[in-house]
Task: structure prediction
Amino acid sequence: MKKVPVQFTLNGEDKAEFVESGATLLKALREKIGDTSVKAGCQQGTCGSCAVIVDGELRLSCLTLAERCDGAAIETTGGLAHGEVLHPLQRAFNEGFATQCGFCTPGMIMAAKALLDGNPQPSREDVVEAISGNICRCTGYEPIIQAILAAARANSLSAA
Amino acid sequence: MELRKEYFADERKDDLKEIGQPRLRSDALGHVTGTTTFFADRNLPGLLHLKMVRSPHHHARIRAIDLSEAGRHPGVVRILTADDVPHNVYTILTLIQVGPEDETVLATDKVRWKGEAIVAILADSERAAHEAAERVKVDYEVLPAVLSIDEALAPGAPIVNEYHGQNYYRYDSGESRKVRFGDVEAGFAGADHILEQTYGSGPIEHAPTETTGCIVVPEGSGRYTCYTNTQAMFFTLDNTSIILQMDGAKLHMVGGTVGGGFGGKVDVIVEPIAILGAKLTGRPVSFIYSREEEMQISSPRAAEKLVIKDGVMRDGRIVARYVKAYIDAGAYSRHSPYGAQKSAAHFPGPYTVPNVWVDSHCVYTNRTPSSAMRGFGVTIGDFALEVQMDKLARLVGMDPLEFRFVNAYRDGDMKAHRQPTEGAALIECMQEAARASNWPVSEKYLQMSSARREG
Amino acid sequence: MAMRQGRGVAAVNYPTGMNLGGDPTQALVHSTPTGNFMVSLSSVDLGQGMKQIMAQICAETIGVPTDRVIVDTADTDTGPHCMGTFASRGTHRAGNAVIAAAREARQVMLEVAAEELEVNASDLDTDGAGNIHVRGAPQRSISIFDTALSAHFKRGRSISGRGMFLIPRSYPDAETGAMKPSTCYAHACTVAEVEVDDETGEVNVLTVKNIFEIGRALNPKMVEQQLVGGSWMGISHALYETTEPYYPSREHGGRDFNEYLMPGPGDLAQTEVIVLERPAADGPYGAKGPGEMCANPQIPAIANAIFDAVGVRIDTLPITPERILRALKANGTENAGLVAH
Result:
């Protein structure tokens, strides 16, 4: 297979890899760069477990070609915490018991981050819309919705 | 969520220090930082990818398999067939002496359901494995298939699984697991009303967000480390040992962090063949179900058919309950003979009925084998029972909740499978439900207790 | 054509454990030199929180804070046998095994502390915060840290314990079906309110009020996780889920999450969960297994509520809009009465 070079930043760090032409961003992140916070739940674009943020927008990494991300800024849940200091969403998911098996959690957190980055004070409907492409089989979604709303409240308090 | 401590307060000491405390989960930090290691979260040099060639037919004889083109495909390292599997015909409950062995790891002369595994491709990349799988040529003679419980049990139906010889599991009690309690015919004879109804369900998928799979690493020690998302570590190890005729001491299963199970990861399907692949190639092997395989190949919750016939008195007492349950096991047993047995023990539900007759059947069809799922042997039965309870209440002109109080089991009541009731709490759940939902019930029901009968 | 509301109820019980070939789980507990405790198991955490709950059970039994306990599980080289995580057995079976192992370890720990304090072990108690003291004389105490150091470096004792829990095999009687397939039973009652569009057959579950009796809520927040998620799955089973929408036809089977339907975050019923605790005599601190039971009562409660709303009985799962419309059509405008398929 033809290999193509691709360079991007991942959670602020420069990365450069050769990937197979046609390889997905999901494969590049998990298998080349070793960021396994990005989960492969369906590889069909139907579960949201692989969601990442590319240049500020939520993307399903299983449907995104790695070579199209040349020069992009990519964010994943694996790079969200600063040392031991968790992002407000991570704190809210943890303290709000919004994870059970944990497999959907990184994708959920990315979907939520993409929402809060553009809409720091979302309504419940906004939250529901934002995570409607992410499947969770354990929680029944309500704790996740509550955690995202709690993170938004925590953000507004710290900004005030 | 609210804890209603006033119920059963005299049976409980609330003086514990760690139990009852809403401590944060120790695993949640890993989940929210994306650092929890699931089985697939490892990159191994030289990893091979396993892809199954599967039957496109519900039931067919395999005349010939041509691997020549697939074998030449770039990236293919090895192709496994039934001949490579030391103990190819197995059943998972053989560990606890529930037989017969009735399922092939890889099909030999026949396929019995659409999706059955025939040939395993091991290749350098997922893509090469997929492409090679497309190039395996199987010559089939399509056979008539039975796809429903009724078809399977009809006289003259094609036999689904020759290892059973008939289209149902034969228990020591015959064609079904039986429960006989009291005299059900006498109960019907004395009943004011009789209601017989039939209920059904389609198969249901566990749909965990993480699909079933494993990664196997051959170690320098001669052992095999298998990173797996099985729900049962030693069940998997011991069955693998049998299928591969490999000393269990050579096997090392590592798991315990699973992206949802719900009963879907109790079959032992991916591990034996992946370990065999690692053994025969000397390389690490990954076998992970695609989402489509998880949906259509992994065992679903069985479809069921239930016939419930009840005799009920004008005052609401159920005096006889007759249940015929049929569980669609698909082509192979897996855990279904047990599920049907568990179903038999569950009837007549949480009610005290003096005359009970249960026949619970495990039926074979040319369908995806079903197996355990959350509520195994109970969920569909509860649907049927509780809809039946609603119909019975209306038949005798009673409120559906009050009707359940009349029949609810209490401590000391003998159940149909001859175990005395202990620790009952159905009445208190219903009392609290009535209060929480403003469902009016007579005061006498609110005074009832599971611990003792009135008067 | 109208939106019609209805209400239904269902009550269920659920057995803990699967007694087919005997139902065993084993556990080992040992202390580190500085008084942390390791629990070794081979039980699997599917997301229900097995690791956390076993840590709390071990901590309660030994008398230390939960964060002093580490659970190592699901490695067949290090963990003793567990049948597996299914049949609502995990917390009950593994919990009992952990209690037995932790009791044995606690006894050794108290014996070592007794030697250090020059008292009888039977006179000692733990404060739950990391110390051992003479009952009635809290000033005569030794930390578990120092006790473990003494055991390891001075007394040559292993603060450890072995635990096992086995429900012996039950063979059903072929004639009568007399058998003991499980142990304690959890209970539930659910009231569901639905709105049915009698033009489209669509069902909107407005509320579910779930009452669950689970023996003992070992960690109430984690119990809530299971029960709320289970209630959602019950609703999903009632109205949406199947791999074969036209069973027994093998056509139309869903292959992905677009085709296999489940309620999304925008389809949630207002969900209430109330928990009662009647401790089970054989349960770890009275706990029963609620993990499966909690997804069952919603299904018939919703079916009964649909009948209450539009007068048709759908006796085949899932209760799809198509099935409701066909039943409504079959019954004309009359009340459907008892039977409609």
Observations:
- The mean pLDDT of chain A is 96.
